């Protein structure tokens, strides 16, 4: 076992692109169309609005990756700009958000397995055992090294995209234009409705910074830039077109009450093409539902693999600056932070005990929202870090493009601030408490660092 070994530069464009797409396209997108249905066609504009905001943030991360090449993503940029305290808080909050998010992912996997095994959710102990098996399987995959976890990420990303692309391609032939003209019209003001809908779509873009976290293992910084920008643009297009297909197949009134909109749409679409598929209508509908449920299952599994990588790599970067306990920096011959993975997965395993009680599941859901908000804070700080470098290191920027860079920073920071504010007062309050809990830990680590 070694300490702080620099990983090999083995992550190419397709692996990094898969890491971003895989982390963004998790289980959430399969439920978002139902959540957006009460907002009518404004839900489509929400995807556009959020996609533009996500692209602004992606450009900030991509540009910073060209100038700061050490691993850590938001932690590395904020620590470089604002010093140890802000850097530690970003790493601490991001790490907590990552492993809580992974706990949520394995719970969602049980939900999609229920499509094939309907009694599984009622068997709490069996579900818990499966959740633990998933957590530790992908912990083992990541311990083997970035090459193995990257391969799994590429494969699962391809598998999760195939059902979505097929659904879009076939669904556009079944779309009923009247569903868009007779859709539900929200009672609230259009801007208020857009604001509420955009907050819902934002959760599907968390992970846009994933390629910047293991940046030292990337082939070169330009690869990170291309993967980040193309990944966000590509995923936004998939989200938007798939939502059009869903709305065009399922009327708003029916979509609002659907608990599995993609599976419901797939049943209708494949039932329409039953003769072409040489199947009975019932068989085609069942096949379509199973295909999409399987795609959702793979989506959650792929996201679990990607976030397992992320939850270990960011603490590793902080440990190198003596801002995380030293054990998080111990690596094996592949440069993998083994103990960081083991500690994170152990905490998740303990946290999953909450799912054994129906009463605690509601609290668990709130903590997931809190974790998501904790990831928005690093976005805002990263935008501010870019502005800091813009004014303090002007020689690293093209003077002719100063206004362009400044405008990008201001727009991205404004969007991140709006996203945090839109999380709601309760979540912001608890997020602040989470932030403050890191202060005594930082004091302890700083004391050891000074010694």
Structure commentary:
With 451 residues, the protein is an all-alpha fold. Helix content is 72%, strand content 1%. It is built from 17 helices and 2 strands. The chain has helices spanning 13-24, 32-36, 42-67, 74-82, 84-113, 124-143, 146-171, 178-181, 190-202, 221-249, 252-255, 261-272, 281-320, 338-351, 358-392, 402-421, 425-450; strands at residues 2-3, 330-331. It has a two-stranded antiparallel sheet. Mean pLDDT is 83; it is low at 1-5.
**How many beta strands in the DSSP annotation?**
2
Average pLDDT reading: 83
* Major β-sheet strand ordering: 1-2
Count of DSSP-assigned helices: 17
Largest beta-sheet details = 2 strands, antiparallel
Q: N- to C-terminal separation? A: 25 Å
Question: Could you spell the SSE succession in H and E letters?
Answer: EHHHHHHHHHHHHHEHHHH
Query: Roughly what percent helix?
Result: over 70%
User: Rounded to an integer, what's the Rg over CA atoms?
Assistant: 22 Å
Summing up helix and strand content along with how strands pair, one would put the structural category as: mainly alpha
- In one word, what is the shape? globular
Uncertain runs are: 1-5
Strand residue content? under 5%
């Amino acid at each position: 076992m070694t300490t702080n070994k620099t990983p090999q530069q083995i992550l190419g464009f397709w692996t990094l692109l898969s890491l971003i797409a895989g982390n963004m396209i998790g289980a959430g997108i399969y439920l978002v169309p139902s959540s957006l249905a009460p907002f009518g066609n404004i839900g489509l504009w929400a995807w556009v609005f959020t996609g533009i905001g996500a692209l602004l943030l992606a450009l900030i991360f991509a540009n910073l990756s060209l100038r700061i090449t050490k691993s850590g993503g938001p932690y590395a940029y904020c620590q470089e700009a604002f010093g140890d305290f802000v850097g530690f808080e970003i790493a601490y909050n991001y790490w907590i958000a990552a492993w809580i998010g992974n706990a949520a992912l394995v719970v969602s996997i049980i939900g999609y397995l229920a499509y094939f095994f309907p009694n599984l959710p009622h068997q709490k102990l069996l579900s818990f055992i499966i959740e633990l098996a998933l957590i530790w399987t992908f912990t083992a995959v990541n311990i083997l090294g970035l090459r193995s976890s990257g391969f799994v990420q590429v494969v699962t990303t391809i598998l999760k995209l195939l059902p979505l692309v097929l659904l879009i391609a076939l669904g556009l032939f079944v779309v009923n234009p009247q569903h868009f003209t007779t859709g539900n019209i929200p009672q609230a003001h259009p801007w208020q409705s857009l604001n509420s809908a955009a907050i819902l779509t934002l959760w599907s873009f968390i992970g846009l910074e994933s390629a910047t976290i293991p940046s030292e293992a990337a082939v070169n910084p330009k690869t990170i830039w291309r993967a980040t920008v193309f990944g966000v643009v590509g995923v936004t297009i998939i989200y938007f077109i798939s939502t059009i297909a869903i709305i065009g197949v399922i009327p708003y009134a029916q979509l609002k009450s659907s608990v599995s909109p993609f599976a419901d749409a797939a049943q209708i679409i494949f039932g329409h093409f039953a003769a072409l598929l040489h199947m009975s209508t019932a068989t085609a509908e069942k096949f379509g539902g199973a295909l999409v449920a399987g795609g959702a299952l793979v989506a959650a599994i792929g996201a679990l693999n990607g976030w397992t990588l992320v939850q270990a790599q960011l603490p590793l970067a902080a440990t190198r600056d003596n801002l995380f306990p030293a054990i998080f920096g111990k690596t094996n011959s592949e440069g993998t932070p083994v103990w960081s993975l083991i500690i994170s997965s152990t905490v998740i395993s303990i946290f999953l005990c909450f799912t054994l009680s129906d009463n605690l599941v509601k609290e668990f859901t709130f903590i997931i929202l809190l974790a998501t908000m904790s990831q928005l804070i690093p976005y805002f700080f990263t935008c501010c870090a870019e502005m800091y470098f813009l004014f303090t290191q002007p020689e690293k920027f093209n003077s002719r493009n100063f206004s362009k860079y400044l405008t990008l920073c201001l727009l991205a920071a404004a969007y991140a601030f709006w996203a945090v504010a839109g999380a709601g007062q309760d979540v912001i309050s608890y997020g602040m408490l989470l932030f403050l809990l890191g202060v005594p830990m930082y004091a302890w680590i700083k004391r050891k660092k000074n010694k």
